[in-house]
Design a protein that fits this description.
The chain is α+β, with helices and mostly antiparallel strands. The protein has one domain. About 35% of the residues lie in helices and about 25% in strands. Strands 1, 2, 3, 4 and 5 form a five-stranded antiparallel β-sheet that branches. A hairpin with a 4-residue loop joins strand 2 and strand 3.
Length: about 130
């Protein structure tokens, strides 16, 4: 019998005006400790962000989301946090913060294929 993968995921959100607490789902981060797997998928909807705040710095938001991806995937230009082990990177990415880029609380699940699950969650929760 094939053992399923226990995973955790969080939704990446953009809050163009933090004080209004309005957000858009722009990505997901999915993590599986046993498989040593982490995946960040994102798409920044510029028009939707500007509809919430015409003053939003969309270029900076995109840069911050790209940095999230670099940290998640452990890329060298992800800085010192990007060099941490996968569980530490996931915990850093999903830490509670009050900034323009936030994540939901982590959720868990079981699956056979982590890549397929990451794409399914991205399609359902972001696209």
């Amino acid at each position: 019998m094939h053992e399923k993968n226990l995973y955790e995921y969080a939704v990446i959100r953009v809050l163009p005006r933090v004080e209004r607490e309005e957000f858009l789902n722009v990505g997901i981060v999915l993590f599986c400790k046993k498989a040593k797997f982490i995946k960040v998928l994102h798409k920044v909807p510029v028009d939707k962000i500007l509809s919430l705040s015409i003053e939003a710095d969309v270029e900076q938001i995109q840069n911050n989301i790209n940095a999230f991806e670099k940290v998640g995937h452990g890329l060298k230009d992800g800085g010192p946090i990007g060099l941490m082990d996968i569980p530490s990177r996931f915990r850093w990415l999903t830490a509670v913060r009050s900034s323009v880029i936030q994540t939901s609380r982590p959720h868990s699940g079981l699956c056979d294929d982590l890549e397929v699950t990451a794409q399914r969650l991205f399609d359902e929760l972001v696209l």
